[in-house]
Write a structure and sequence with these properties.
The complex is a heterodimer of chains A (241) and B (180). Chain A has 241 residues and is an alpha+beta fold. Chain A has 6 helices and 9 strands. With 180 residues, chain B is mainly α. Classes of the chains: A alpha+beta (241), B mainly alpha (180).
Chain lengths: 241, 180
Amino acid sequence: MSDDGDHILPEGAAPGDGDRILSAEYVLGLLSPGQAAAFESRLASEPALRDITAGWADDFVAMTDTIPPRQAPRRVWRAIETELWPETHAASTHPARSARFRLGRWLGGAMVAAMLGVLVVQSNLLAPPQPGLLAEIGTAQSAAHFTAAYDPGSGELSIERLGPEAPSGRSYELWLIAGDAAPVSVVVWPEAAERQAVALPTELAEVLPGAVLAISDEPFGGSPTGAPTGAVLATGAVVQG
Amino acid sequence: MATLEDIEHLIARTALADRSAFQELYQLTSAKLFGVALRVLGTRTEAEEAIQETYIKIWRGAGRYNAGGYSPMTWLITIARNTAIDRLRARRAGGAELAEAEDIASSDPTPEAAAIAGSERALLLGCLEELPEDRAEAVQGAYLMGLTYQELADRFGVPINTMRSWLRRSLLKLRECLTR
């Protein structure tokens, strides 16, 4: 069966049309698995392509606007709880936080990322001297912006603040979230610091690949409870550098 | 009434493993996503399974939300749509007959979810109307039914390469209309 992905352009196409078509075909699910995988690896390193793709996703989702919402039966939520928190689903409203990390869950997250093409854009600012793990921690909605790089040789997580300092009287706090486990505080960001290096305990370093790093807004000196209490200002997935 | 900012905030809290935020996100958005899964799959049982799988993916993938540049409802609906399409394709590959569409008009929509749906999106529907009718149907068949180029070609009775060039030209026309 021919899979004519290379000859993508219709007659009279303009520069950039190839990527416009390819990203639309990706969102529609018209690419072969091989083409989709190749496209996703480009998404990871080409912000412009990612923006075109997100634009198509926003446009195409309008085809669901006329679909009326339907109340899902209660058993659906109960099944979700049972699958995610088998040990505590009976008491679901109490956020009983398990300190255990579920290693098998990384793959699930990676699949979601691949499926959506929501791969983390590697930071050009980091340019790591050796292979390791990287995360870009930011959002479009907040100025808070950090990058992190983990060096398996030294066991240190180096974090750099690229955005503004925390507002007066507040602190940024960096959290590590692995799988379905509760967030673990990595560091309360010292006032005005631009860089921090944190020696990660082995059990945290082991769960770093595929984990998420997040910055929350906390009272000065950090969360008083040991769990995030303020707004989540920035998040980023840890990926291979 | 939930705003897109509220939904975005709940996704961010979900990335921090905040179960109550995740539950609130489910309460606000599951009716819309269930509606989409029902439309794609046609049966309540399969749609329920698809929605269960969808929210598991949302819980586990919430930390990656920002990286994709999607708006929050687009991100959620896209996960539901892709999950439902994957199931539909697996059913087709298994040679199963199209499931009989059940009467799915019996449940009530929730006002919250209805309010979340964007209002600025009439644009796409207008642009689809500018395409020849069969081309617009092909775009919708790919998105809402998960039809492949081969299946679209069979359905419209043209060779697959003709289908490809039709659809690609239509996509460029759509983009031109959407950015006009």
